[in-house]
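Page 47, continued from p. 46.
Same chain as before, 156 aa.
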Amino acid sequence: MDLTHFDEQGRARMVDVSEKAKTSRVAVARGKITMKAETFQRIRSGLIAKGDVLAVAQVAGIMAAKQTSQIIPMCHPLMITGAKLSFNLVEPGEVHIEATIKVNGKTGIEMEALTAVSVAALTIYDMCKAMDKTMVIGDICLVEKLGGKSGHYRRS
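Result:
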């Protein structure tokens, strides 16, 4: 498979999607942040001094999805039609994050979903770092994508 973000001279370029048809596209990404049990319990109980950690992380993830083209150089600006972030608190100290991002457009939405999960995890870290600097963000991956030329993908 050719690398589409490089021209004939090997220089970076943004792929030209002007001739592509708009299609409905969905991407789902997941990740997690692991922390001390005490930090986890304080998030669960709403006792973090900076406020409702998951509510802020949810808004941050949605905002990040909408701004992906501003921070990933070759991403096209997309008019996102739907963005949903959810959190699953897993004892003793993991917050699992899932983002589902939708668009009716000419190019994929995978980077927006991955960015949403990443920024949501970073926001959790930021809001809890005063009490727990041992937190680890990880396992961020695309789990499903629908639409576009390459069709349906689901991580096994």
